[in-house]
Amino acid sequence: MGPGQESVWDYPRPPRAQRVSRRVRIVHGGVLMVDTDDVVRVLETSHPPTYYLPRAEFRVPLLPSSRLTMCEWKGEACYVDVDVPGVAVLRDAGWWYPQPDLRYPQLNDRVAVYAGPFDEVTVDGEPVTPQPGDFYGGWITTDVVGPFKGGPGSRS
Length: 156
Fold this sequence. Notes:
Blueprint: E1 6-7, E2 16-20, E3 24-28, E4 31-36, E5 39-43, E6 50-54, E7 62-71, E8 75-84, E9 88-96, E10 110-113, E11 120-123, E12 126-127, E13 129-130, E14 139-140, E15 144-145
Parallel strand pairs: 1-15
Antiparallel strand pairs: 2-5, 3-4, 3-11, 5-6, 6-10, 7-8, 8-9, 9-10, 11-12, 13-14
């Protein structure tokens, strides 16, 4: 582990939500979908951080999906399809907690998205690598080190 890096194995369980001074930009098909420095990240043992952004700052429609999942810590997650006008509708590309557990008030009215479906996801200008697998939504940057949960055989 190098200077300024965090090991995901030092992150807590249960997870911790924290505001951070970072800028997140997401672009798809040439459309700027969100550009914000109003960022909350969730840190959980073995996972790269998951970034939650204000729903109101998305410049594209977030459409309700029928998919629901349950997090033992944060509560019931409702998924969204991201409508990038004139480009694509990205199915189940993000999620939010309409009524997050009382331990996570920072997540009210915030959405997290999978980095994989989008052309460009950056944190402070650095391109993000999606967490391995098709379930978890962490974002890997050079300031976090693994190994990361999510690859083959690590889901449960």
